[in-house]
Design a protein that fits this description.
- The chain is α/β, with parallel strands linked by helices.
- It folds into two domains: about 200 residues, Rossmann fold (3-Layer(aba) Sandwich); about 90 residues, Roll (Methionyl-tRNA Fmet Formyltransferase, Chain A, domain 2), CATH 3.10.25.
- Helices cover about 30% and strands about 25% of the residues.
- It is built from ten helices and 15 strands.
- Helix 1 packs parallel to helix 6 and helix 5 packs antiparallel against helix 9.
- The radius of gyration is 22 Å and the shape is globular.
Amino acid sequence: MQKINPRIVFMGTPEFAVASLDALVLAGFNVVGVVTAPDKPAGRGMKLQESAVKKYAVEKGLHILQPEKLKNPLFIEELRALQADVQVVVAFRMLPEVVWNMPPLGTINLHGSLLPQYRGAAPINWAVINGENQTGVTTFKLQQAIDTGNILLQEKIGIGDDETAGELHDEMKNVGAQLLVKTITLLAEGTLKEMPQDEVAHQQQIILQHAPKIFTETCKIDWNNTAASIHNLIRGLSPYPAAFSYLDEKMIKIFRSKKEITPHSSKSGSMLTDSKTYLKFACADGYIHLLDIQLEGKKRMLIEDFLRGYR
């Protein structure tokens, strides 16, 4: 039998991680420390900005550590002094072995996919870009190779035809937070069974998709592709970093689109508009209607508002 209320050190930085930390606090778990990124200068005045996780931890009076380097002996000493039974990692950087191997119950990571599918930095984006109709969240034990540790629990999440990565992210952070609470509860009771990812991959007999970091070239639309693949790219990169093309030699970011599959003789990438209600680009098997856009140097707006002012 394990400790019923284990000592937890939480590691995370962005808004996505706050939902998980909040869920652990609300569930009454003993969060003895929070590790997050150092404050960074940002904005026009280059004022120091705190991470979303730090802001929450300050509000709740939690003990905060903000190491520049995770191998710093002073940080390792401080972390060890917290005597965590388990560490929880949500949207944080890669941990050295000396850190993830420290607690007796191990270090648990929350990942935004149904592992072993979509290992990597951008699982939410790539699931949408690839046109998946289902993804999920996974809790797993950290080990040496990234996103490869033994699976603990999983929860499936459906993806709508027009759902964006941003919308899926917001749903996933809440589903993931609850899965994490369940994981820690069962881990504390000693009733959790670990499943090696290789076994899962063998059982499912699937071709594994990967989720590498998104680069600028990933975001540029190729109008020679099909309407479905371009529509999926647009929603998979919305709202950030956003798929883009060019209009009158200015970059145009596209956040929402609608696909129209129809035979045509237009050249791929050519633009059609009635200057009032629609603006569409020709692609391999039809058109992509732009619904929500941002032209370089302008604010983000709906297509009707854009056309009202654009000549």
